[in-house]
TrEMBL record:
Residues 107-327 form the Heat-inducible transcription repressor HrcA C-terminal domain. It comes from Archangium lansingense. Negative regulator of class I heat shock genes (grpE-dnaK-dnaJ and groELS operons). Prevents heat-shock induction of these operons. Residues 190-217 form a coiled coil. The gene is hrcA. The keyword RNA-binding does not apply. Keywords: Coiled coil, Repressor, Stress response, Transcription, Transcription regulation. This is Heat-inducible transcription repressor HrcA.
Amino acid sequence: MSEELLGEREKEVLRAVVQEYIATGGPVGSQHLARRAEFDVSSATLRNVLADLEELGFLEKPHTSAGRVPTDRGYRFYVDTMVRLKDPAPRDRELIHAGLAHESGMEELLSEASRLLHSLTRHAGVVVTPRPDVAIFQRIEFVRLREDRVLAILVGQNGQVHNKLLVVDFPVTSDELLKASNYLSELLHEVTLEEARERIRAELDQEQALYNALTSKALKLGAAATDLQTGERVLIEGTGSFLEQPEFADVERMRALFKALGEKHKLLSLLDRVQRAREMQIFIGTESEFSSAGDVTVIASPYGSREQVLGTVGVIGPTRMNYQRIIPLVNFTAQVLSMALDKA
């Protein structure tokens, strides 16, 4: 018997075990299942079905005399074939709209999205911020701080702001800084930061830049300002929620989990797969970068526009989570965040 050949009874028993375990956190036995209204068979029959599902790798026994709990394979089959998704509850939709509706910059909206998901799911909310080099450029401003110090402020189309302190080794007046800002804002309007760098390099290669002192200064300032090393950042809200879950009562398991959460490059690598897929992804147990911690699921969805994916928003929690409720919440949050950033 394989996944494709599971009978209706086996599927219903697997569904019941997953739902009971998600609700109670305790192993599920045949006698408990026999009390459910949908089963009109004996406890002995259910015990045989549980044994078959265990042999197939969908269930396992945490202890010799205990009932069964779902394995990663069992959760995967449940999520892929049994979860019936509905829109989030009206109250949840209202909270998400309200939280992401106020006029804020990108940083505030992204932080609010992770906070909302934590508040609504009681799991860790996670957001990956956009990479600067894919943000659409809108304008650049220069502010003099001292004689040889200038603050460059780069503003993206979606409200993303990057500041960089520049050390200038040539004289430049406040009037020249304003003219440089206007010149570069027009030259680089509605291109990505990466394209802006290329355009500045091309302009610097042109001979006329050598004969126009103001243009030369503006391009040098622009080249320094767009040389950003900052990559994506991961915003996580509510990691303490894992302490509330019995699965992580073990100190070593909790230590492994927080170590994995602290290795942001691994989390970024995982969530980058969501951006490349351009659709929601669900990583259960050993499918994620948290396999050493065990029993962890990541549900994430990309946000941005139809033309451009900016980042990822999602939830990190135990595999024993309410998938039917949380999957629509993550998806809806990504949609509302995308609309909010369009207006930012």
